[in-house]
């Protein structure tokens, strides 16, 4: 059986850590090319300096996976869709909501699959939490997403440049879990955003969210920090009338009232490629704008503060 061919655009940390191993492990796509502006390569696969060069050289390519920083995603996605390719986009799927809405229209016109891969949503512990919350009375949700940017994103200056999301680059993973597990939408009511004096994007942020009046969801908060020393924390604590759920380790482990319920090995990217393959087979798209909307809303209603300059 001939596998659909895929080009990987952007050969950085996430492409190497997750995409290439997941493509190999699932065996659903043939990795046919990579695109790397600085000419980086991976074993046995041709490298192109730009997506345009790859599309011209490999007209039969079926799909692309975009693993670049978000600021260049809109242009690359439009280019790929118009060339007739199915497109998987790493999170966050675009730099702005307008760009994302445009991509939905482009995919419809091109009749190709567009998949915004919010990877954290693909953890079994997230699915189980969603199932348990479907009928629950939720008193509160507290997100704590604190990591050391120097450890996890060394030298990635794009994160602190306009359009790079700053602390929302990891924080949006928590928001993608939040929008997935809650039975009703929540809205950002207030936010405090702290940007270093020499950078464009926030290095820390707190969000206050709530649902529409009359819903079964109480106070929802998020605390994002990019300067966390010591223990790194990616957790969501949910207090319900029936007990407490702790979704920890980036949404990969679930504990209910202190009792471990789910702790799966990290297979989220394999699930992503299986879902992408299924969507292509079904002639469908899967685009979720909610996490990006919450970040945009935080920037609209939030108060901005200048804080100490940041250097690596
Ligand atoms: P990264 O290590 O900086 O890699 C980004 C890569 O994209 C670089 O190799 C860069 O090449 C390339 N690139 C930039 N513009 C390009 C273009 N126009 N065409 C082709 N390639 C281009 O960043 P990353 O950590 O992999 O993150 C990439 C995306 O994945 C981000 O949106 C991030 O939020 C997401 N993500 C990251 C992680 C993680 O753990 N790091 C986890 C999940 C998701 P040059 O260096 O040559 O410019």
From TrEMBL:
The keyword Oxidoreductase applies. Keywords: Oxidoreductase, Plasmid. The keyword Lipid metabolism does not apply. Transmembrane segments: none annotated. Its EC number is 1.1.1.46. Residues 7-115 form the Gfo/Idh/MocA-like oxidoreductase N-terminal domain. It comes from the Bacteria. GO terms for molecular function: L-arabinose 1-dehydrogenase (NAD+) activity; nucleotide binding. This is L-arabinose 1-dehydrogenase.
């Amino acid at each position: 059986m001939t596998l659909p061919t895929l080009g990987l655009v952007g050969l950085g940390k996430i492409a190497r850590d997750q995409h290439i191993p997941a493509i190999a492990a699932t065996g659903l796509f043939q990795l046919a090319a990579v695109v790397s502006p600085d000419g980086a390569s991976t074993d046995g696969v041709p490298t192109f300096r730009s997506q345009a060069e790859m599309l011209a050289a490999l007209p039969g390519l079926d799909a692309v996976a975009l693993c670049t920083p978000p600021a260049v995603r809109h242009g690359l996605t439009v280019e790929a869709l118009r060339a007739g390719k199915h497109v998987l986009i790493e999170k966050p799927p675009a730099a702005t909501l307008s760009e994302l809405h445009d991509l939905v229209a482009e995919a419809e016109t091109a009749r190709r699959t567009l998949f915004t891969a919010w990877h954290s949503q693909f953890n079994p512990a997230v699915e189980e939490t969603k199932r348990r919350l479907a009928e629950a009375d939720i008193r509160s949700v507290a997100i704590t997403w604190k990591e050391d940017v120097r450890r996890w994103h060394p030298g990635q200056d794009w994160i602190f440049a306009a359009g790079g999301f700053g602390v929302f680059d990891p924080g949006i993973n928590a928001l993608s879990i939040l929008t997935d597990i809650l039975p009703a939408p929540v809205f950002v009511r207030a936010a405090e955003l702290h940007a270093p004096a020499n950078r464009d994007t926030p290095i820390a942020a707190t969000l206050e969210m709530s649902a529409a009046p009359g819903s079964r969801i109480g106070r929802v908060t998020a605390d994002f920090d990019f300067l966390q020393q010591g223990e790194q924390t990616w957790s969501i604590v949910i207090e319900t009338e029936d007990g407490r759920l702790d979704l920890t380790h980036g949404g990969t482990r679930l504990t209910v009232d202190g009792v471990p319920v789910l702790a799966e090995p990290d297979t989220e990217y394999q699930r992503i490629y299986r879902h992408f393959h299924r969507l292509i087979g079904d002639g469908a798209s899967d685009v979720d704008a909610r996490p990006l909307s919450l970040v945009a809303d935080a920037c609209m209603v939030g108060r901005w503060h200048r804080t100490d300059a940041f250097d690596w």
